[in-house]
Amino acid sequence: MGSIFAALALQKLVGVIERTSATKKQTQEKFDIVIYDGVSNEETLRMISATETARSYLKYLRNLAEKTDIGRLTAPSLLRLAEESVELNDGRSRFDGKMSSDIWNDIERMLERVSTGFAKPSKLSCYLVMDPNNPTSINAAMRYWGCAIQSGAHISGAFGYAPPLSTESADIIKTKFSPLPSAIMPYLSFGSPIDWDAVVLKSVGEDARLVFAAERNDTFPSPVTFDAANKSVTLFMPGFDKSEIKLFQYRGGSELLVEAGDQRRVIRLPNSIQGKVGGAKFMGRSVVVTMR
């Protein structure tokens, strides 16, 4: 639950769902950039995926409220709890004049907008940092790339830290993490005072700035690609092997649940692809799931 509250706190700062409240007395501060410094990589990924987790809780609460006797009795309290948790009321109740099903739908749509907002590079950009001369560090960065996709985030670039003039290190990152924009971070020696002007202005610093300024383009692999003709779904999942990926289906085959690492991702399938999983195979860094 802590990850969910962290996600909602971050939403207040970056305005993921681009909604402001005219009734709130306090003014919302505006920032050019907000840097989120999490406890760990895993905790940050859980924070990003928190809205999807909240949607799972919401489905459970709704099922409890609509299909059990005790749920129907406590439904008003459950609705108010869900509404207050995601701050939908803007200082006024949304219960007035609405059916309970409408309120459940409102809450679910709001959480979906937050999830979509976290996936926008203009709202939340994530970067991989590694030692290009250390295979373990490279493998960890590759796995975090896949975990970030699973959590619903967008990786915008990759950085390596290496000794100065290490062109071989730069080539390693470009080869391993293509098509992500990449650069070697400026080398800092802490044995003497750091000349920050030289660090920022020299060419290697310029490369790093270009990565931050890069915009997403068509060469970036899409996390999910649907192929209606072949009735298949292609999932871009770098850093995982076949044994780590589990596929489940919900709601009569209209949703595909992908479990990898400690993240779960729900993918809504188009009508033309809905059905049972017929098979799955790896193709490069992607998993192709065939439906039948």
Q: What's the number of helices?
A: 9
Strand content: 15-25%
User: What's the rounded overall pLDDT mean?
Assistant: 75
Uncertain segments of ≥5 residues (pLDDT<50)?
19-27
For the sheet with most strands, the description reads:
4 strands, antiparallel
Shape summary: globular
The radius of gyration computed from the alpha-carbon positions, rounded to a whole number of angstroms, is 22 Å
Q: Structural class per helix/strand content?
A: alpha+beta
Widest β-sheet, arrangement of strands: 4-5-10-9
Number of DSSP strands? 10
**Total tally of structural domains:** 3
State the separation between the terminal residues, measured CA to CA: 37 Å
Specify the helix fraction band. 40-55%
| Helix-strand string | HHHHHEHEHEHHEEEEEEE
How is this structure best summarized?
With 292 residues, the protein is α+β, with helices and mostly antiparallel strands. The chain has nine helices and ten strands. The strands form three sheets. The chain has a four-stranded antiparallel β-sheet, with no helix packed on it. The chain has a three-stranded parallel β-sheet with strand order 1-2-3, sandwiched between helices. Strands 6-7-8 form a three-stranded antiparallel β-sheet.
